[in-house]
Amino acid sequence: MNAAGGPPVTSTQVQLFAVLDPEGTTVAALARHMGVTRQTAHQAVHGLVSAGLLEQIPDPASARQRLIRRTPAGERAHHQAERLLQDLEGQLAARIGHDAVNALRATLEAPWGPAPTPAPPPTSAPTPTT
To answer: Where is this region: Disordered (predicted)?
Structure first.
């Protein structure tokens, strides 16, 4: 994306874009889909909001929640990324064959089960006093 003139994004932000529902998704749902903590998802969202690629809107189903969705600039970046991935896939197919690429896609798109639950942060043991 950087080489194509797109905004710089982290791997977490790329993953977020991949699981984002076009109508909007809560941060909690994004975290679950990504298998990360809410804090990690929130940080990724904040960076993409600051970059003008995402926006927060009120959730019509809940007055307390907000939905995260792409802005028009975010839609353009998403479509640009899709085109780049299609180009890369075409290059890969030219090297290993369309059948191998299709098998790879089927393997990667197979259900992997639920996302792993993030481990809670380690707690420090109390220091004995003498």
So the answer is: 108-130
